[in-house]
Design a protein that fits this description.
The protein has 268 residues and is α/β, with parallel strands linked by helices. Helix content is 37%, strand content 14%. It has a seven-stranded parallel beta sheet with strand order 3-2-1-4-5-6-7, sandwiched between helices. The protein contains seven helices and seven strands. The model has no long low-confidence stretch (mean pLDDT 93). The protein has helices at residues 20-31, 66-80, 110-138, 159-182, 203-206, 216-223, 237-244; strands at 11-15, 35-40, 56-60, 85-88, 141-146, 187-194, 255-258.
């Protein structure tokens, strides 16, 4: 797929870049000419990027460990000397933080709730501190967070994830104002809010592990999505590339829904 955007000479950091969506963001940005640094706990399987060797860096990073993120930032600067874009792709849910027929809300374990809350919110804030400081010194930069349609309308069964993504949306707006007013109007902060995309974190909720058929929950989602399907990662590319590009240079502090019409449909 050809894209009109050219990010040659631009350095992009993608946290969670080995995950389903983060990996696709890294690929499309490489195809658009950017240099890409993937920060993830699992980077061993990223050999597919060897053809981009001069423009690709993989750093094993724990986004919940500030010293780990700091170390990664130093490696990125050593290779590319600047950071133009940060995509905070690290996040996700846990079955242990989800209610089910076997686990009530009242019995959800603290460690699971804390893990999901920290991964999504602090996993966005800490990289924004480290790489945002670089952008503040540069007087320019662009941060893109990953929220969720759960932030607008919380879904059943996943209280920690819904609450954490609502916090990500709020933080996106806060940081957009803070960076523009305190450091430079040329630092922008936005978020995308994907609707339903099949990932490793939610597959257990949407499809039957044995048959691959949709669960009742998965069928409800499709029935309430006017476009009648789950999203594909490439459905996010246009919005991501636009928000990173100069085409959106007067856009900051927004949370952009990409949901196939789910949020517009009342069910009637």
């Amino acid at each position: 797929m050809m894209h009109k955007y050219n990010f040659k000479g631009k350095c992009t950091v993608v946290t969670g870049g080995a995950g389903v969506l983060g990996l696709e963001f890294a690929k499309i940005l490489l195809e658009c000419g950017a240099s890409v640094a993937v920060l993830d706990l699992n980077v061993e399987h990223l050999e597919l990027f060897t053809r981009f060797r001069d423009r690709f860096l993989a750093v094993k990073t724990d986004v919940l460990d500030k010293s780990s993120v700091q170390n990664a930032s130093e490696m990125v600067l050593a290779k590319y000397h600047k950071v133009d874009y940060l995509i905070n792709g690290a996040g996700g849910n846990s079955p242990n933080a989800s209610t089910s027929s076997n686990t009530s809300f009242f019995d959800l374990p603290l460690d699971a709730l804390k893990f999901v809350g920290d991964l999504n919110l602090l996993g966005t804030i800490l990289p924004s501190q480290i790489f945002g400081k670089i952008m503040a010194n540069q007087k320019e930069g662009n941060i893109l967070n990953i929220s969720s349609m759960n932030a607008f309308r919380p879904l059943t069964r996943i209280p920690a994830y819904s609450a954490a993504k609502a916090a990500v949306s709020n933080f996106t707006q806060w940081l957009a104002v803070h960076m523009a007013k305190e450091y430079s109007p040329n630092i922008r902060v936005n978020a995308i809010a994907p609707g339903f995309f099949l990932t490793e974190q939610n597959r257990y909720l949407l499809t039957d592990e044995k048959t691959g058929e949709l669960t009742d929950r998965g069928r409800k989602i499709i029935d309430h999505t006017p476009m009648g399907r789950f999203g594909d990662p490439e459905d996010l590319f246009g919005a991501v590339l636009w928000l990173l590009s100069e085409d959106s240079k007067f856009v900051t502090g927004i949370v952009l829904p990409i949901d196939g019409g789910f949020s517009a449909y009342s069910g009637v």
